[in-house]
Design goal:
380 residues, mainly alpha, 3-stranded antiparallel β-sheet, 10 helices, 5 strands, 5% strand, Sec2_N, coiled coil
């Protein structure tokens, strides 16, 4: 009994210590899990803050990219505007310079003509034509009769004592549209003086050339161009290109050799035609017949005997065709037209619709001029 009573308290103490250990371990676990949960919540909050910061930085980046694009576009537009303004000012300055040079040439021509025609009068040798009071009564009456009837007679009477003065046209540099008015002024300055004038056709050409800058837009053509510009293409089914093919391209590329003309037109449309100068000393190396390809002195398109300084190549074919300057001008005019409408189709032309239209009308005029046989020489 005594031995059993001693063992009981010891076992109770052991159980108490074990229960305390268990409770302390549970507390440690609870505290550890609580710390881990706090760390996890802190990490989640930090991730949320970083996500918000990333989103804000992304918005800033997008805004900067948009501002950069707008700035680049505005810079290009401003540069284009500055270049356009500079070109306009340059053209105006050149026009004013030409006008000033023309006025100077006119004044020089007037001085030269007056020095040639006006007779000097000195006290020792007075000019009787400039001083009618020194003439005799008979001569004075004849002079007055001429003045009264000059509108009806239309000619200057010739006196035996008066010599004849001949007016020749001025040199090419001195020709101006004011030359006919100058001559009429000189005729009035020397009444009674017989004058013979050699007419120069260049005067009339220059008079007719005045005011050729006027232009008026054709509403039908402009409407067709606007419809084509909405969806630009090289398809000739549109009313705009169909008219140009019918009125300009077809006649401009219509040569005596009709089959070769069609091949040339197809090459121009496909942008596969090559024009190159010909070395006059080189021997032509072609594989086609001599009649078809022409030669340095025979145009392959017109069949006429002309000096051919250029030759063309159609696509990948190895044959060369010699062409005259007139044929080259006609082909070049059509190529210039196709190049411009290709630029419009590719969106490379930044002008407004009216400027594009007038440029196309200018290219059409070049095709018509070349079709009629006019072209610039190497010296021109």
């Amino acid at each position: 009994m005594e031995g059993g009573g001693q063992v009981g308290p010891t076992s109770i103490r052991g159980h108490g210590q074990l229960s305390r250990l268990r409770s302390s371990s549970l507390e440690i676990r609870e505290k550890g899990s609580e710390i881990l949960r706090e760390q996890l919540d802190a990490a989640k909050n930090e991730l949320k803050l970083k996500d918000k910061e990333c989103e804000r930085l992304s918005q800033v980046r997008n805004q900067l990219e948009q501002e950069l694009e707008e700035l680049t576009a505005s810079l290009f537009e401003e540069a284009h505007k500055m270049v356009r303004d500079a070109n306009v000012k340059q053209a105006a300055s050149e026009k004013q310079l030409k006008e000033a040079q023309g006025k100077i040439d006119v004044l020089q021509a007037e001085v030269t003509a007056l020095k040639t025609l006006v007779l000097t009068s000195t006290p020792s040798s007075p000019n009787r034509q400039l001083h009618p009071q020194l003439q005799s009564s008979g001569t004075r009456g004849s002079y007055k009769s001429h003045i009264r009837n000059k509108s009806a007679s239309g000619a200057f009477p010739l006196s035996p004592a008066k010599k004849e003065v001949s007016i020749q046209p001025v040199s090419k540099e001195d020709r101006e549209p004011a030359a006919p008015a100058l001559l009429s002024l000189i005729f009035c300055l020397i009444p009674g003086q017989s004058v013979s004038m050699t007419y120069d056709p260049q005067w009339q050409k220059q008079i007719e050339g005045i005011g050729t800058d006027g232009r008026q837009m054709d509403s039908i053509l402009f409407a067709e161009f606007l419809m084509w510009k909405e969806h630009p293409s090289l398809d000739r089914s549109s009313a705009f290109l169909s008219r140009i093919y019918r009125e300009d391209i077809g006649p401009c590329l219509s040569f005596t050799r009709s089959e070769l003309s069609h091949l040339v037109q197809s090459a121009v449309e496909n942008n596969s035609l090559t024009i190159e100068p010909v070395a006059m000393s080189a021997v032509p190396m072609v594989k086609a017949s001599a009649i078809e390809c022409g030669g340095p002195k025979k145009c392959a398109l017109s069949g006429l005997s002309r000096l051919c300084k250029h030759r063309i190549k159609l696509g990948d074919k190895e044959s060369y065709y010699y062409i005259s300057p007139s044929s080259r001008a006609r082909i070049t005019a059509v190529c210039n037209f196709f190049t411009y409408i290709r630029y419009i189709q590719q969106g490379l032309v930044r002008h407004d619709a009216e400027q594009m239209f007038w440029e196309i009308m200018r290219l059409r005029r070049e095709m018509n001029v070349a079709k009629l046989g006019f072209y610039l020489t190497d010296q021109g």
